[in-house]
Amino acid sequence: MTEVATTRRSRITPEREAELYGAVLDLLREVGYDALTMDAVAARTRSSKATLYRQWGGKAELVARAVRHDKPGSSAEIDTGSLKGDLHALTLRSDDCQMEQNSALMRGLAMAVHGNPDLLKAFKEHLIEPELAEFRRMLQRAIDRGEIRADNPALDYVMHMIIGGFAARSLIDEQPPTQAFLLSYIDAVVLPALVA
Question: How deeply is 7 buried, as exposed, middle or buried, from its count of CB atoms within 10 A (0-12, 13-18, 19+)?
């Protein structure tokens, strides 16, 4: 079944796939997840709905893959030689404009995930689990270098801290997250918790 799905997906060029994902993200920003339909994606991208279902199976899978595709690079590629350098490099992959767009998009999707098990499953498979695995490798390198202790209880909450800082910026300060804010948050909150 996986081989068939891979074969089907390979018929779309990477350029066309990027175009489709971009249209999905634009629609998400315009109407939100609940109002987004495969008909609207098909119309926006001049595709057939059958093609979309054949390639992605449904809206949840298409949305999760579009969000994953939009993420700048892989954090597995980041290895500056220090945890602080790695966390800063991770933050600097997105500029302030991208962070603001992603913040609004993620707030809307977070609400949709709670009411849609298919979307939650797709997000876990395509976003959450891969990101956590890459992040654990980054933290393991820091442990191996002796920067942090392997038994530090904060290790289990690093991703929570970072996502919390990103999400809370607009909620508490009524401002979008920025590189400057997140870099100072990492230095003031995340790193002290890890090296304590």
Answer: exposed
Asked if the 72-195 domain carries CATH number 1.10.3470, the reply is no
Q: Domains of the chain: which residue ranges?
A: 2-68, 72-195
For residue 33, which amino acid is it? Y
Burial (Cβ within 10 Å: 0-12, 13-18, ≥19) of residue 68: middle
Look up residue 147 and give its amino acid.
E
Tell me whether the CATH fold assigned to 2-68 matches the one assigned to 72-195: yes
First to last CA, the chain: 48
> Would you say 76 and 134 are in contact if contact means Cβ atoms under 8 Å apart?
yes
DSSP 58: S
CATH assignment, 2-68: 1.10.357.10
pLDDT per position as a tens digit, 8-49: 445 788 899 999 999 999 999 889 899 999 999 999 999 999
* pTM score: 0.78
* pLDDT band, very low/low/confident/very high, at 73 (cuts 50, 70, 90): low
State whether residue 45 is helix, strand or coil: helix
Burial of 75 (0-12, 13-18, 19+ CB in 10 A): buried
